[in-house]
Amino acid sequence: MAKVKTKIGNDFCPQALFLYGTKQEDGQPHFGLFCWFGYYHSSEGLGVMACIGEEKQTKDLIRKNGIFSANLVSEQLLPLADYYGCTYGKTAPDKMKRLPTVEWGEVLDVPVVAESPVSFELEVKQTLPMGDGSDIFLCLIRNTTVSEELLNKAVPFPQRLRQAAPVLAPGEDTYASIDGRYLGKWGEPMKNLPGISPTP
Ligand SMILES: Cc1cc2nc3c(=O)[nH]c(=O)nc-3n(C[C@H](O)[C@H](O)[C@H](O)COP(=O)(O)O)c2cc1C
Which of 17, 18, 20, 35 to mutate to test the pocket of ligand 1 (most atoms within 8 A of CB)? Predict the structure, then answer.
């Protein structure tokens, strides 16, 4: 089968989804959903590259605090994560009326999602402004926490990976499970949250 030139994009290149957790000025946690996320390695250790587009509350708080958490989104967390991704914090002051179980970082003063299977506590080392409103944050991972049961090496890794149940963004504005199940379009899973009525 020939390869065909198409529009520039990354469909079929699945990205894991993360909830970025930041501390607001009043001490309350704030969360947003993000997928433009990758890793780098430096002499200081493993780092994370996080790209945030136009202005948003998460970006203001990352710039102000210089630290945030990244919490892997599991299938269980997807309705809430989808809500955080489809609700713009700057114009929805009550966005955080829905919260996961929040814990605070072991190393950094950042909110961490207890239900998430993997959480990183991140310290921004460099900010690369792209000049068009997009910014890339290069961050050192200062701490990683993982659900205890995922560390049981007696269980084969593929089984523990399915147990972690990370949600992927594989393209065409959809969500998928790690074993390829379709989990809905962006904006759909949040309709399962109490108080949000499904569109007819
Ligand atoms: C599946 C999904 C992935 C997203 N990934 C990103 C991303 O990587 N970078 C970004 O700037 N916005 C991304 N967004 C949009 C933000 O989640 C959205 O702007 C949200 O309002 C951020 O929260 P805040 O406004 O409270 O800061 C994504 C949204 C969805 C639904």
Answer: 35
